[in-house]
């Protein structure tokens, strides 16, 4: 994959950074991260352990002029207000969702604020598939029109991560470019890269390939948890819906989507064990399921590692997009507005 000039790398910022999936992918194709922001202290700890610098905190408290100049804004903005599960849960509790969720639903407008101030060459956003359908499409219309109003030409693509990792994980990606020629170059390179990945006749990743042989006993479900999950599944089967345990994972296929709640009981991805209760995946297996290398460190509890991975992007998917993006940006062009931060 083509990399940018090491003497003049594409500069990115990593918003709602989580544990750094965007950064990992972009830096693998030669880009340089000049700023990151993440509100969760535990995720910031993991980020710092792996990249050497700790992200700034709540982006709402950071003025755009205090962010260094950059080429590409990256953001996997909070998906809970728009996800199918998140919306259902909030509706059942009588709570607002989407942009009406003042806690996290309006964070998209922080992205707009920074884009408007810096006017970078491009951006790459990631969110759940349901973003397009939320509020009968009105939410996505607002997002599209708002980004286009800032002068960006958009490329929107739904991508399933199962072609790169053994997991069903459909996510919507929104790339935007100020320069139309850069947009066209990105689309051509992205489509070439996707075609090469999908039609190279290599076998699809299998869940069995990321599993460890010797797994500590603590990852096997206790009798109480296993009994509860079976009863919960049966109750919902009788009601005719799909909630609860979805069966054992297919080791020769791909797993269900890894959620942030996975550490609670592992119900979404259960590994069958002959003569014993099933087990959940270990955090390291979950990291492989998301496409993180084995040298990526999690200096946090298992419960926090599960949450961080369930909220993460898939770096191998981002790398496809990043490679097409950084090689399409004209590095001779003006790179956004100057910041008051000296670099």
Automatic annotation (TrEMBL):
Where does the secretion signal sit in this chain? none
Quote the Gene3D superfamilies the UniProt record gives: 3.90.120.30, Vaccinia Virus protein VP39
Question: InterPro entries from the entry?
Answer: C5-MTase, C5_DNA_meth_AS, C5_MeTfrase, C5_meth_CS, SAM-dependent_MTases_sf
Recite the UniProt keywords alphabetically: Methyltransferase, Restriction system, S-adenosyl-L-methionine, Transferase
A Gene Ontology BP annotation from the UniProt entry: methylation
Q: Where are the catalytic residues? A: 79
The record's top EC class is transferase
> Listed GO molecular functions?
DNA (cytosine-5-)-methyltransferase activity
Q: What's the protein name? A: Cytosine-specific methyltransferase
Q: Which organism is it from?
A: Leptonema illini DSM 21528
Source taxonomy lineage? Bacteria, Pseudomonadati, Spirochaetota, Spirochaetia, Leptospirales
